[in-house]
Design goal:
Elements lengths: L2 H11 L2 E5 L9 H12 L6 E4 L4 H11 L6 E4 L2 E4 L1 H10 L1 H7 L1
Parallel strand pairs: 1-2
Antiparallel strand pairs: 1-3, 3-4
């Protein structure tokens, strides 16, 4: 299995996936910490975290998979949603909560 297939399995095998620097309890960058807080504010407590700092192959592969150069990266129902700024805008508009509830 190549790295793209591995990432695809993670993204499609979990309803909500957050690829971030660090863990939910110990985010390793401000944007990753903000993403965790945004999910919490949206009422999402059940999501799969991929700490991209633990695996350089996943870190690089995820950039290509999403065609998105930065982290965090949020996926809901197998679809790439965006990073922390997009998550914040969607939370403010109520769109994130609707996607999570679907």
């Amino acid at each position: 299995m190549n790295i793209q297939e591995k990432i695809d399995n993670i993204v499609k095998g979990n309803k909500v996936v957050l690829m971030m620097k660090g863990t939910r309890q110990f985010p390793q960058c401000g944007f990753s910490g903000r993403a965790v807080e945004i999910l919490k504010a949206a009422g999402c407590t059940d999501y799969f975290v991929v700490n991209i700092l633990e695996d350089p192959e996943i870190r690089q592969g995820a950039k290509e998979y999403a065609d998105w150069p930065t982290f965090p990266q949020l996926y809901i129902n197998g679809e790439f949603v965006g990073g922390a700024d997009i998550m914040w805008e969607m939370l403010q508009a109520g769109e994130l909560q609707a996607m999570l509830a679907a």
